[in-house]
Fold:
Amino acid sequence: MSFYSTRSVSIRETLASLNWVIILLTVTLGLIGVAIQYSVGGSSFSPWAWRHLLRLGFAVAAMIAIANIPLRSIYKSAYVIYAVLLIALVGVELFGATRMGAQRWLDLGFVRLQPSELMRIGTVLALAKFYQSVYVEDVSKLRSLMVPIVLILAPAILVYRQPDLGTAILLVVTGVSILFMAGVNIRYFLLSIVVLLASMPLVWGRLKEYQQNRILTFFDPERDPLGAGYHIIQSKIGIGSGGLSGKGFGDGTQSRLNFLPEKHTDFIFTIYAEELGFFGSLALIALFIGLLGAIYVVTREVKSQFSRLLVAGLAVSIFLYVFVNLAMVMGMAPVVGVPLPLVSYGGTSLLTFAIAIGLILCVDRQPTADIGK
Amino acid sequence: MIRRRETREELFTRRALIMGAGQLGLFGLLVGRLQYLQVNQSARYATLAEDNRVNFEPLPVARGRILDRYGFELAGNDQNFLVTMMPEQAGDIVDVLNRLRRIIPMSDRAYQQTLKRLRRNPKFMPITIADNIGWEAFSRINLEAPFLPGVNAVVGQKRLYPLGPQSAHIVGYVGSQSSRNGRPVRYEFEGRAGLERALDESLQGEAGNRRVEVNAIGRIVRELERREGVAGADAQLTIDSDMQAAAFRALGTHSGSVVAMDADTGEVYALASAPAFDPNLISVGIDEKSWSQLLNDDHKPLLNKTMAGQYAPGSAFKMIVALAALEAGVVKGDHKTDCTGVYEFGGQKFHCWESKGHGLLDMAESIAHSCDVYFYDLALRTGIDAIQHMAKKFGFGIKTGIELSGEKAGVMPSRDWKRANYDAPWQPGETVITGIGQGYVLSTPLQLATMMARMVSRKANVKPHLLVREEENTEPDEETLLDIASEHLDVVFKGMDMAVNQAGGTAYGSRLSVNGLSMAGKTGTVQVKRITEEERESGVVKNNELPWHLRDHAIFVGYAPVDRPKYVIASIIEHGGSGSGVAAPIVHKVMETMLRLDPRSRVKDVERS
Structure:
């Protein structure tokens, strides 16, 4: 395996070393996104499709670039990346631009960043690095549990305060999943579930009214058919009216007609399902399953705990976004404002998933890399 | 060390497999949900989606215009800027209405009423808040549209009547079509009176409709399907706007009417009833005060007196009595009666309008001087049956069938009629007063014009009409010819000629000459109030000293030119005083214009060009 340590690697060899299954699945999903943005834009490349395409090109380039970073450097800088993003989150708290009622962007002048999106990667990196140096006997010891819990809760609380409950919950769930895969005793998870349920009333009181409404309406959309429940009802009508084979690409009516808010971002699947129907929806889900499957395959080949947990953690993160988004638009989860990976419009979101997949490709290229200890 | 790492890897693999299985399970849940939505419930959601996005909208078509014989608009269409509100979209109705109020002024009462209407009507139906708002308010509303949800400033149609009151009784007016059973309105207007009402169906045309896709707030996004309607058909009338104007000028401030028509074809050139109203005001929605003023006016401006006003024909009926007598062979034209100013029958005194008496007069002279005694005697000799029979030939007691609703038939009494209506036998004394067109006889100005047209054209079937017909048969044929001997008609014509053109005739003051053409006709003065014997003793009170409503009705029916009649005009002025003093001069003015304009030839000119 001296292949990887050879300094003069040709471009051809570099490309050949990449996991093309993952890249192709990623690009396919991204292009599906472009196609739907085109449809949502009224069969027009403006205002969304061409920008999504442009960003997709940039994202793929970033992905391949990240894939070529030595894994060792990534391992070394994991905590630094985490710290920088945490500071950025604090920055959002202090100077964040408010958009749609939530402070999620950090305006750096030339680019608006959404650190909460990037933070999922930062947290996975930090946790993976932490567990690289923990012996399996110590994993469930309280002392070794303190650091990961802080690593998870610190960004989660900041994201929650933006306020972005959805992203905060996904951050916590991703982190806890890594703890689970790292081998933390099952009893802790059962205990946490009990504690979580017990603290529900307390958390409920601290939720913003619109968050409470979203959850209440989730359980009973008819409660407010023209208000908070409206989006869910309209989205279900959109998906349901698509039927088996859909209304045809570009011929969706329900979802393009402003019945839905954020139709090009969070509710993009509604348009997709309406226009391409049940079969089209199954195909999209199959693509996501294929992508996640290909990522899990990577974990089988790598040797370090850092590599395994990094890849698996990122996979969990991608899965959670796919699942929560689809469940949300189908009326199975509250409207929490989670994009559909690679498909939804949005620069930070697309870039974040590209970075995540880039990191996975990076691990895949260097399965036996000596990352030091 | 190696063992530890393997254990860590094994642990990870087991846990990762659990995670993967869980994820697959969750994906299975999503697929299940998808199947529920897109397969099991698909039909239901498809229906919901259809409801959500498709609206049926009527496409109003232009209402047909009403044109005079030369194509001049009597009723046309104009733009009307109006503002509507859909309560469903507006959300807070009160708030939106208050904002709107800052742009278009609205009285407190109108505001409350509008609010009530908005709350009562179906939420998805646009309610008209105000119309005729003007260009400025229209553009301001469009400008402030983002702050006025559910409010639409739209360009609608407005009915326009260029002649205003002059054509009011012919064209009538329209009203906004009210929604019925919550269904959207298909046409903007519906005819409420006059030809607008009578011709409503053909003027409306066939409204089209379109299926439109709307977004969540009801704005139209695109059109799915459009079925164009058929524009309403224009209606061309026989009316000559200039004649109509002349008739109104002649009527002045009187309460009365003028009918001018073609003697041969029955084409109505002018149909004027005064006072009139402005249909432009009524069509846009007249205020209650003005409306009740119109309703309560004793000059009855809303009534079309030419066809709905019934008056005793008075002396204008004498031609009928004369013809009945001649045709029945009771007397000949040279039959004379000595008028002493009073006629006694059955112990009752019947007075002549000339209390001194006319002396010895023949039939034509009696018509010229309108001697009452001569016709008291003649009527009695002829009998009510023959008079009634003759009167029917000329259309008395029968609707003329003009294309307007509300026409009255008048009354031509007979023995049967008396029995049916009064359950009493006919009295000979009633025949006497029928001889001078009083008593039970009632006729409309349109009937008098028709009578005269049939008489001078010698055509039995002449009927007045307002709509231009494809073929106007001007050549008389055997079947439609009046079955009255020419020499008998000539007696009547002679009398009417003398009445106007011979010194001493009742309408001598209204004689005229246009390019050597002159007019003939018959006056009539009808008592409204019974004159008692005491009043006769002390001298009859002059008409202009009586209160308006007790004064005599003034009547004149004329034709011209005398030798080859083309036109007839009838006029009745309510409480005008006397036929010779008021009605004849009015007909004189209109006839003068008619002979100058010569509408019958004018239309031919238009056809040629």
